[in-house]
Amino acid sequence: MTKDEIFNSILGKEGGYVDHPADRGGPTNWGITQKTARAHGFTGDMRDLTREKALAILNDDYWYGPRFDQVAAVSSKLALELCDTGVNMGPKVSSKHLQRWLTALNRQGKLYPDLEADGIIGPRTISAIKSLFQIRGYAAAEAKLLKALNCTQGQRYLEIAEADQSQEEFLWGWLDRVEI
C-alpha cells in the first residue's frame, strides 16, 4: 500500500466538512481541524479547505513529521493504522501505543531493549518493529501488532466517552475505525 492509498483511505473515512457542537476539535474538514489548518497558514472558512491542502497537511503532520514513512518501509499496514489513528487522536498518541505494545511483546527485553513510550518514532522503534517481525514471523507479528493497536485505540475511545458524556455521541462512529 502506497502513501497515496493510505491517505485516500483516511480521507474516505474522514469525509468532508463537519462542525458538531460536541466535537472538541471544532470545525473539521477532511479530518483536519481548524486549529491544525490555521497552523499551516489556512485562513479561510473550513468548508473551503481543499482536498489538496488536507493532503499537504497529512503529509507534513501525519506522515513525515511522526516518521510513519519509516514505519511504512517495514509495514504499510502498520503505517496506515498509525496514520489513521494519528489523524483521529494525534500522531504522538498512536506512536506511544505502538511503543507500549512493542515493549509488552518483547519477552521481557529478550528480543530488543524496552522502549520509552515517548511518542517519537526513531531508530530504536523501527529496529524493534523489524526485530519483532523477524523473530515472531512477519505476517503473524504484523497481524497481532495491528490487533493490539486496535485494542488500545478502542480502550482510548471508551475512556474518552466515560470521562465526558458529551463524547458518547461519537463513540459509535469511532468504533468504525477499529478493525478486528
Description:
The structure is a single chain. This protein has helices at residues 3-14, 34-39, 51-64, 68-72, 76-89, 91-104, 123-136, 138-163, 168-174; strands at residues 28-29, 32-33. With 180 residues, it is mainly alpha-helical. Helix content is 62%, strand content 2%. Helix 1 runs parallel beside helix 5 (76-89). The chain contains 9 helices and 2 strands. The longest helix has 26 residues, at 138-163. The protein has a two-stranded antiparallel sheet. Strand 1 (28-29) and strand 2 form a beta hairpin.
Termini separation (Å)? 19 Å
Annotation, overall tally of beta strands: 2
Please write the string of helix (H) and strand (E) elements. HEEHHHHHHHH
Helical percentage: 55-70%
Main structural class: mainly alpha
- Continuous helix count: 9
Calculate Rg over CA atoms.
17 Å
* Share of residues in strands: under 5%
Judging from the principal axes of the Cα atoms, what is the shape? globular
The overall pLDDT, averaged over residues, is 94
- Low-confidence parts: none
Largest sheet: 2 strands, antiparallel
Largest sheet, order of strands side by side? 1-2
Please give the oligomerization state of what you see: single chain
Describe the secondary structure blueprint for this structure.
Elements: H1 3-14, E1 28-29, E2 32-33, H2 34-39, H3 51-64, H4 68-72, H5 76-89, H6 91-104, H7 123-136, H8 138-163, H9 168-174
Antiparallel strand pairs: 1-2
